[in-house]
Amino acid sequence: MEDPTKDISPEALRLARVLQATFDLFDNDIPKSLAWLGKPIRGLGGKIPLELAHTESGANEVIKLLGQTSWGVIS
User: How many CB atoms lie within 10 A of CB 59?
Assistant: First the structure.
């Protein structure tokens, strides 16, 4: 079976992972998700999630924070 993601850029896949994690946290509320992604977040040291998502380590940091938030580890 051929890999369906083989023609998709790594940055697009990274952004898709961040978007999915954000949509999961905000119950698929797209406006709320996009607003969160575009503002400085204290749990990310005041950085903007979409800006961090340009690198693998930054995307992982955003996804980790979203996971912690969904489990109530941080607010």
Answer: 22
- In whole angstroms, how far apart are CA 71 and each of 9, 11, 54, 75? 30, 27, 25, 10
Question: Would you kindly state where each structural domain of the chain is located, as residue ranges?
Answer: 10-70
Q: In the chain, what is the straight-line distance between the N-terminal and C-terminal CA atoms, in Å?
A: 42
Kindly report the length of the chain.
75
The values of phi and psi at residue 47, to 5°, are -85, 160
Which tens digits make up the pLDDT trace of 2-55?
Answer: 887 788 999 999 999 999 999 999 999 999 999 999 999 999 999 999 999 999
Alpha carbon separation from 15 to 12, 20, 24, 26, 70 (Å, rounded): 5, 9, 14, 16, 19
**CB neighbours of 5 closer than 8 A, spacing ≥ 6?**
13
